[in-house]
Hints:
mainly alpha, two-stranded antiparallel sheet, globular
Amino acid sequence: MLQLNLEGKMEFDPELGEDTWELFEVIEDSFGIDLGDYHEICGMTVRELAEVICKKANYPIEDRCLSAVSFYRLRRAFEILYGVPRRAIRTATSVGNLLPLKDRSTKWAMLQKHLGLTLPRLQFPGWLLLLVLIIPPALLVYMRASWGIRLSAIWIFDISCALYLVTFVSIIPAVDERFPLSRVLPRACETFGGLTKVVLARNYATFASQYGSSCDGGLSNALRQLIASQLAMDPEEISPDTRIPHDLNIY
């Protein structure tokens, strides 16, 4: 992250990078708090940050299990929107089976609007990204070999980069607007139980303000889940003693 030094010149912040900044912003939004100066919380463990959040948020005492509230709200939404019988939904139920790939983007948007909550974003298919990266240089190499067009390695590299820029800045956004390309479920949301945890973590302030919160367990677990979801990590990789951002391999 760039910042101004005492002489008014831009320099890189050695500790607070863009990924860390974005993570703290998501945490603020999810827990409905203001963390203040991010530099002061850099280096805190998950446990320490959870204590800070608990003091700042000052949620009422928990009187219901928030995970259960999140699960039942989601299950009811699937029943109303998509006609899925409640008995067909368990924590291990595949969300992919409930939301087929073909119209997943539309149904995902419907679900978010119906719940009035923030859902994690669907992801761009990895195979399609790989295809977009491979086609330009492969096509140019083919043109050089088959058509005799004189293209040096530098020209192939430069033209490919220009095509990447056009593709990612103009073509893909235009196509995605009419035919949504982001349809892959985040890894943490592949099961209904996983989706329940991520939705709770991403909207913790909404649930805790109404049903209360437990700083000892519920909030800390939600924070771990939120960090894992934001960074596409396994929640088991994040412990209460994990330091942010030092132990997360982010900048």
